[in-house]
Specification:
With 359 residues, the protein is of the alpha/beta class. A 6-stranded parallel beta sheet has the order 1-8-5-4-2-3, with helices on both faces. Strands 6-7 form a two-stranded antiparallel sheet. It has 2 domains: 28-160, Rossmann fold (3-Layer(aba) Sandwich), CATH 3.40.50; 170-357, Dehydroquinate synthase-like - alpha domain (Dehydroquinate synthase-like, alpha domain, Up-down Bundle), CATH 1.20.1090. The protein is built from 13 helices and 8 strands. It binds nicotinamide-adenine-dinucleotide (NAD).
Amino acid sequence: MTPLSVIDEELDFTHRSAPGTVRFGRNTLGAISETLTNEGLVRALVICSPEQKALGRRVEELLGDACVGVHAKAVVHVPVETAATAIADAKRVSAQSLVAVGGGSAIGLAKAVALEMALPIVAVPTTFAGSEMTPVWGMTENGNKQTGRSPQVRPVAVVYDPTLTDTLPTRMAVASGINALAHAAEALWAPDRSPVTSLLALEGARAITGALQKIAHGTAEPGDRDRALYGAWLCGGCLGATTMGIHHVLCHAVGGTLNLPHAETHTVILPAVLQLQRQREPRIINVICEALNVAPDDLAATIRGLAAAADLPITLAELGMHDGDLSRVTDNVHLSPAAHKIWTAADVTQTLTVALHGD
Ligand code: NAD
């Protein structure tokens, strides 16, 4: 019998779809004021990183009276002190909504404020990391990153304007794009996937990988950044609707134990995870390869090739990890029986060893 879904033959699932509005298109930033009005939002505090303050000010101008200020202090991994300053600022200006403009760091800071003050977020993403589509928040205290899920932090509306990604340097574009690809892969082997998340994941993976090939090799044409952002939207939606799997567990263990950069850690670990999943989940790897038009033997090398073309590291050793760190990291890998039942401790060590030195 022909399977009814791309992955599963039996239809038995719960599908959670994100509520909210997604506006996508070049120059849609111009519709930001209308987006807030449609959602009934007022007194918006704009949140961005210091590097994107000019963009934050542009959004402030576009919002006019609906804006109560710009908080340009977002940094990576949302330190608790940074969150406390943003919460104090939001209280000082009596903000009733938040507009997060930027990558995962700006959106992450808005989520920390939303978690505390129950304010609705409108997100304007400028990287491909995908946080705008998820109910996942993260905060760092004394070097330890804590994450959680709350529907309160998922943006109520997202404005995707691909022109805003034109300034994203190639290296960052490819790193955040591979992060998005990892969300899609994880959704395909998630225990709570649905036929819908599988379709979104494959379409997202196809769109983002095709675009990244050209961005990484410097042959991007008009429309390729749009396709990458379109893929990032779908991949982020998959992460928001399913349980994070082995890839994210390994990234958090490596990144958290050794304080390595987020996107680069994902970039290095994803090919190693896909290599092992070829033995553990061959059917899913075959479906991914079909979507990407890559032979299963070449999948990991294709992703490493993307990273190398964008001058990104392809081994954890390049990021500063040593052989002596391996046991410390593996001690911090906590496999949950529900999400990782087919992975063993030996699989973890094998995968991290491949990621450490390359294949
Ligand atoms: P980022 O937000 O840290 O941005 C990196 C730098 O790039 C910043 O200085 C930023 O100002 C700059 N930048 C962003 N967009 C730009 C553009 N278009 N042009 C020029 N410069 C630009 O990077 P990221 O990879 O988007 O986010 C990483 C963070 O997001 C991590 O903390 C990660 O844990 C988090 N994240 C969270 C989720 C989630 O669901 N909660 C998902 C993915 C990532």
